């Protein structure tokens, strides 16, 4: 079996590539990072370090790599003969890789029409569906028809914390022990792709929301509040009792939504939250706040980790969720100059105010009670943390 995986970064090497190789796939990584591509080609293997109580090492073997910019034709051929195409490139890169995936599919259809599955492993709802929409715009009419018959685009929820890191060996990657990969079976063509350790579910909705509105919501709170208090890592921020209490409050709020909406068992969900908080405090990991806080405009989106649970909480319980509101206010104060979205967000706030940013990026009506609450919280935080 062959898998073509776009994005040989943290989650690509540290999770998806490692699971696919363990499942018996020859993994071909596709990336634009020249050094990583060269080393993967030269070495054909890399190390995954599991940062638990004991440090364990696993070797991922039998891998190769291609550069999507300079070896486009080879990428197309690789897709033509693949059984699986996966991605972990970041939501904003999906439209960038869509043309070469479409070209690979067109090439494939001229040779054979065997089933293929595509899975986008990005932190977003409907990630693979979004990728499909981009791919389809680059296909011929015949290609579009064949995609419906032969290519299963499967949404998924992917969960493993893999921090940014600098290692002596640039291919080695340190990951947390926990992982979860839930894949929706709805659009499979024939049998589900054999992936060891993945969890196949008929309806991904409850799983992606549980993950995004717990792990990513809590993480976002820790990162944005931690940034205001000038901590460097999530682990440092979580030692601050005020921040930890806000994280817990926000997760009680998103948890109330998840339990009511999806019928998750309340006790089980409480223990899911406890496990999640334990993962944020893992002393064997050091996760930079600016990584977890990256791309604040995306994270302020109406379907993303803060605004979606806050809006749903208000709709279900007719109360403003104070923890989530703190997270949104702290996000609006995130002004890291190295983050292009943070800079753009600050510009919008300067020009249109907090209200303007919430209308533009979060899709909120300016009369929504959340807007009022976020504005108040933002003003207080700005005063408290002004540097
Ligand atoms: N790091 C983590 O713990 C987790 C990340 N994710 C998601 O996985 C995705 C990737 O995140 P990370 O691995 O952390 O980021 P990363 O920045 O470490 O990796 C992204 C990789 O994509 C590559 N890339 C960029 N443009 C490309 C292109 N045109 N063609 C091919 N490759 C390209 C980059 O060079 C980089 O190696 C994001 O959507 C993230 O939300 C999901 C769960 C966990
Ligand atoms: O990858 P994103 O969506 O930018 O957000 C960072 C988040 O994603 C993760 O990397 C993995 O879920 C978390 O560590 C963090 O909550």
Q: Examine the secondary-structure arrangement and name the CATH architecture of the largest domain.
A: 3-Layer(aba) Sandwich
Strand content: 5-15%
CATH class of the largest domain: Alpha Beta
Return the average pLDDT rounded to an integer: 97
Q: Determine the CATH superfamily of the largest domain.
A: NAD(P)-binding Rossmann-like Domain
Task: Describe this structure in a few short sentences.
It contains 16 helices and twelve strands. The protein is an alpha/beta fold and 387 residues long. The chain has two domains: 2-203, 3-Layer(aba) Sandwich (Rossmann fold), CATH 3.40.50.720; 206-385, N-(1-d-carboxylethyl)-l-norvaline Dehydrogenase, domain 2 (Orthogonal Bundle), CATH 1.10.1040.
Account of the protein in words:
This protein has 16 helices and twelve strands. Strand 1, helix 1 and strand 2 (26-31) form a beta-alpha-beta unit. The longest helix has 24 residues, at 205-228. It has two domains: 2-203, Rossmann fold; 206-385, Orthogonal Bundle (N-(1-d-carboxylethyl)-l-norvaline Dehydrogenase, domain 2). A six-stranded parallel sheet has the order 5-2-1-6-7-8, with helices on both faces. A three-stranded mixed sheet has the order 4-3-10, with helices on one face. A three-stranded mixed sheet has the order 9-11-12, with helices on one face. The chain has helices spanning 10-22, 34-43, 72-80, 94-111, 127-136, 141-150, 205-228, 234-238, 241-262, 266-280, 289-292, 296-299, 307-317, 322-332, 340-362, 369-385; strands spanning 2-6, 26-31, 45-51, 55-61, 63-67, 84-87, 116-120, 151-153, 156-159, 173-175, 180-184, 199-201. It is α/β, with parallel strands linked by helices. Helix 3 (72-80) packs across helix 4, helix 7 (205-228) packs across helix 10 (266-280) and helix 9 runs antiparallel to helix 10 (266-280). Bound molecules: 1,4-dihydronicotinamide adenine dinucleotide and 6-O-phosphono-beta-D-fructofuranose.
């Amino acid at each position: 079996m062959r898998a073509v995986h776009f994005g040989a970064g943290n989650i690509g090497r540290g999770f998806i590539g490692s699971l696919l190789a363990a499942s018996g796939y020859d993994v071909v990584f596709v990336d634009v990072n020249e050094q990583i591509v060269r080393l993967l080609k030269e070495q054909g293997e890399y190390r995954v370090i599991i940062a638990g109580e004991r440090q364990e090492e696993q070797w991922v073997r039998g891998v190769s790599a291609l550069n999507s910019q300079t070896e486009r034709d080879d990428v197309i051929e690789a897709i033509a003969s693949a059984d699986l195409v996966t991605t972990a490139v970041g939501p904003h890169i999906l439209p960038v890789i869509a043309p070469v995936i479409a070209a690979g599919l067109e090439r494939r259809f001229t040779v054979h029409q065997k089933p293929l599955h595509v899975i986008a492993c990005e932190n977003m709802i409907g990630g693979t569906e979004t990728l499909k929409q981009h791919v389809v715009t680059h296909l011929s009419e015949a290609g579009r028809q064949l995609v419906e018959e032969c290519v299963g685009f499967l949404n998924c929820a992917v969960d493993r914390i893999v921090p940014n890191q600098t290692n002596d060996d640039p291919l080695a990657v340190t990951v947390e022990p926990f992982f979860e990969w839930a894949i929706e079976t709805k659009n499979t063509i024939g049998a589900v792709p054999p992936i060891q350790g993945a969890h196949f579910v008929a309806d991904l909705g409850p799983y992606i929301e549980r993950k995004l509105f717990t792990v990513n919501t809590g993480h976002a709170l820790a990162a944005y509040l931690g940034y205001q208090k000038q901590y460097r890592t999530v682990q440092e921020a979580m030692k601050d009792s005020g921040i930890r209490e806000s994280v817990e409050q926000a997760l009680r709020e998103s948890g109330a939504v998840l339990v009511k909406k999806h019928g998750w068992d309340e006790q089980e969900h409480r223990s899911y939250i406890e496990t999640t908080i334990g993962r944020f405090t893992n002393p064997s990991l050091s996760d930079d706040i600016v990584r977890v806080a990256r791309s604040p405009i995306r994270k302020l989106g109406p379907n993303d980790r803060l605004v979606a649970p806050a809006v749903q909480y208000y709709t279900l319980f007719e109360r403003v969720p104070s923890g989530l509101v703190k997270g949104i206010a702290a996000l609006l104060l995130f002004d890291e100059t190295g983050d292009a979205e943070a800079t753009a967000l600050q510009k919008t706030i300067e020009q249109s105010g907090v209200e303007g940013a919430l209308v533009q990026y979060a899709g909120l009506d300016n009369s929504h009670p959340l807007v009022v609450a976020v504005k108040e919280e933002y003003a207080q935080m700005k005063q408290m943390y002004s540097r």
